[in-house]
UniProtKB/TrEMBL annotation:
<feature type="domain" description="N-acetyltransferase">
    <location>
        <begin position="6"/>
        <end position="194"/>
    </location>
</feature>
<protein>
    <submittedName>
        <fullName>GNAT family N-acetyltransferase</fullName>
    </submittedName>
</protein>
<dbReference type="InterPro" id="IPR000182">
    <property type="entry name" value="GNAT_dom"/>
</dbReference>
<dbReference type="InterPro" id="IPR016181">
    <property type="entry name" value="Acyl_CoA_acyltransferase"/>
</dbReference>
<dbReference type="Pfam" id="PF00583">
    <property type="entry name" value="Acetyltransf_1"/>
</dbReference>
Length: 194
C-alpha cells in the first residue's frame, strides 16, 4: 500500500485532463475509455478508441460526475465508475450477470452501481480498490442512493489481472456487500443497502 494518503475526487469537467492522463494514449484497457457498459455492443464494435474517448469526454462534460478519481501526490492513479444504474445502460442488459432485480430497477435513480475500476500500472495490486469502495459508499450515500450494487469477479489469475476491472468479490464482501443473485459462474451480483 502506498505510504502517502490517497485522495479522491468526483470526475468533474475540470478534472478531464487528469482522466485522460490516467487512461493514457491507448485509453486504458484496449482503448475502452470506460465505455464498455455505456455503449451498445454494436456501437462498441463500430467505435474506435477516438470515438470512445469522445463519447466519454462528452459524458464527463455533461455531468453529473460519472465516477471518482484517486490521487497520490496530486497525480491521478485510479478511476472507479460509480453512479445510478441508468447511467450505464449496458450494465442493465437482462443477459448479463449485472441484470437488475425487480426490487432495484435500473430506472430508479436511487439504485447505484460500481461498474468499473482502472489503476495506473505502478499502483495495481496494492489494495487501493478497498479504499475506493469505501469512498464510493460515502459518495453514493451522500447523493441519495438507497442501494449500491456491484458484480465483481470471484477469482482472478493474479492481483493485476485485467479481469479485475469489475473488482474482486472479496473486496466488496469486506465492505459489507452481500450476494443477491448469481446469473453467471464467478460473477455474483452484490448489494449494499445504504
Amino acid at each position: 500500500m502506498p505510504s502517502d494518503p490517497v485522495r479522491f475526487a468526483p470526475l468533474t469537467p475540470d478534472r478531464l485532463d487528469d482522466f485522460v492522463t490516467l487512461f493514457g494514449p491507448q485509453g486504458a484497457c484496449y482503448g475502452c475509455w470506460c465505455t464498455y457498459f455505456r455503449l451498445s455492443p454494436k456501437d462498441r464494435d463500430a467505435f474506435g478508441k477516438d470515438e470512445k474517448r469522445a463519447h466519454m469526454e462528452a459524458r464527463i462534460r455533461r455531468g453529473p460526475p460519472p465516477g471518482l478519481l484517486a490521487y497520490l501526490d496530486n497525480e491521478p492513479v485510479g478511476w472507479m465508475q460509480i453512479g445510478p444504474r441508468a447511467d450505464v445502460p449496458g450494465w442493465n442488459n437482462p443477459r448479463r450477470a449485472t441484470s437488475p432485480l425487480p426490487d432495484a430497477p435500473a430506472d430508479d435513480p436511487a439504485v447505484w452501481a460500481i461498474s468499473c475500476f482502472f489503476f495506473a500500472r505502478g499502483v495495481r495490486g496494492r489494495g487501493l480498490s478497498r479504499d475506493f469502495v469505501a469512498e464510493g459508499i460515502r459518495y453514493a450515500r451522500d447523493r441519495g442512493a438507497r442501494l449500491l450494487e456491484a458484480s465483481p469477479i470471484d477469482e482472478a489469475k493474479h492481483s493485476k489481472s485485467v479481469g479485475l476491472f469489475v473488482g474482486s468479490t472479496s473486496t466488496f464482501r469486506r465492505a459489507g456487500f452481500r450476494e443477491v443473485a448469481r446469473a453467471k459462474p464467478g460473477r455474483p451480483l452484490m448489494r449494499l443497502v445504504l
